[in-house]
Amino acid sequence: MKRFACLLALCWLAACAPPFDPDERLSFDAPTRAQITGVPLIQQEDFFCGPTSIAMVMQWAGADITQEEVAALAFSPGAGGTYLADMIGSSRRLGQLAVEIDNFDQLLTEVTAGHPVIVFQNLGFSVVPVWHYGVVTGYDFARDEVYLNSGQQDQMVMPFAVFERTWRRGDYWGLVVLPPDQLPASVDEAEVLSAAAALERVAQYEAAETLYETGAAKWPENWLWQFGLGNARYAQGDLRGARQALRRARSIDPTIPEVRANLAFVESEIAG
Amino acid sequence: MGFLNLSKKGIAIALSAQMVLATQAVTMAQAEMLGTDAAISKYTALANRNALMDEMQRDEVRAEIEALGVDPAEAEARLAALSDAEIATMLTQMENDSAGADIVGTLFTIFVILLVTDLLCFTRFFNFTRCVR
């Protein structure tokens, strides 16, 4: 498990990496520039770059939340930082869809789709790591710039090569945090399904319900979305809603024992 | 994971597998709702595995494997011995190596053949296959 201290260091001056070549590094034809507007710049408190990053992304999506509120769910005082797992977990406990990404293709796919991405960077050296979380809000190939909201009042601008190096040292870890009525652009169906089930696990049933509905609209042929929807509604005491979803799941695939079992269970409760 | 790209391909054979499962339909009274998590892991793994086994049944794949001097039945047995996690890892690598394209048709065929030759120590394409020479 990695930890970091959220210090800001400018140790990358000894740059000697080759320039970033989008044709070579990307396997899709990304637009030459993208910029997401409306992500607030929040000055982080000491060591709060993780919670601040989540707060910035959630405020961008319209939520009313502060870095302190996120920190209460994410920050580890003993470590002086926020663990990767707690970045994911706290986002989910706040009712958000949270999925990890791990490469440039995914990062730029999300940014061009208008989704800010939290990235884990080492701003120091491999031997003297300075771990940091920031939010990528845009890029411009022609100007060789990546734009980040990085816990300071001013936007941070990094040349691609510098950003690449700092992100590579963080193993290209990135996190897409979205409200549950939106879907990530670079993550496949199975991972979104798992993220929805994870919302059930942290008892965010309403968010889970919304995400299952969103997924069902995009992937209507997969019964698992209706199955999850039925379970999330049942957990909120909505028996008739649960029955409706499970019946839909059954009509998509009549052979699944789990669907039939849960439908029978809900029907027996309705019959009371 | 390959669920998204392979699901259509997998559905046909998954259905037949599920028919078998369904014959043991859960009729006993249950104490609680069956969880979404477990169903997702089970059926995602099943769809992935079925897509692979399905591909093995195709004539051009069998012909290719036989041309390598390998008995298709043995190739199938090796494939069937892979764990769910190994299949998921492999499908992820396929997606990464196919440069973002959907894994369909010829490309998938090539990957499956590479997998078989990997398992038989002819090639070293996939990270998880271990071949001691």
Notable traits:
A: 272 residues; alpha+beta; Cathepsin B, Chain A; Serine Threonine Protein Phosphatase 5, Tetratricopeptide repeat; 2 domains; 44% helix; B: mainly alpha; elongated; PA2779 family protein (chain B)
Spell out the blueprint of helices and strands:
The complex is a heterodimer of chains A (about 270) and B (about 130).
Chain A: H1 22-25, E1 33-35, H2 49-60, H3 67-74, E2 75-76, E3 81-82, H4 84-93, E4 97-101, H5 104-112, E5 117-122, E6 131-140, E7 145-149, E8 156-158, H6 160-168, E9 174-178, H7 189-201, H8 205-218, H9 223-235, H10 239-252, H11 257-271
Antiparallel strand pairs in A: 1-6, 2-3, 4-9, 5-6, 5-9, 6-7, 7-8
Chain B: H1 3-23, H2 36-56, H3 59-67, H4 72-80, H5 84-97, H6 105-119
Helix pairs in contact in B: 1-2, 2-4, 2-5, 3-6
Could you name the CATH homologous superfamily of the largest domain in chain A? Answer: Cysteine proteinases
Estimate nothing, just give the exact number of structural domains of chain A.
2
Outline of chain A: elongated
Strand content of chain B: under 5%
Mean pLDDT value of chain A: 92
CATH architecture of the largest domain in chain A: Alpha-Beta Complex
Structural class designation of chain B: mainly alpha
In sequence order, what are the helices and strands of chain B, one letter per element?
HHHHHH
Q: Give the radius of gyration of chain B.
A: 16 Å
The Cα radius of gyration of chain A reads: 21 Å
> Could you describe the largest sheet of chain A, including whether it forms a barrel?
7 strands, antiparallel
The low-confidence runs of chain A, each spanning 5 or more residues with pLDDT under 50, are 1-5, 7-15
- In which range does the helix fraction of chain B lie? 55-70%
Number of helices of chain A: 11
User: Overall 3D geometry of chain B?
Assistant: elongated
Q: Fraction of residues of chain A in helices?
A: 40-55%
Transmembrane segments (chain B): 103-126
Protein name (chain B): PA2779 family protein
Pfam families (chain B): DUF6627
InterPro entries (chain B): PA2779-like, UCP029543
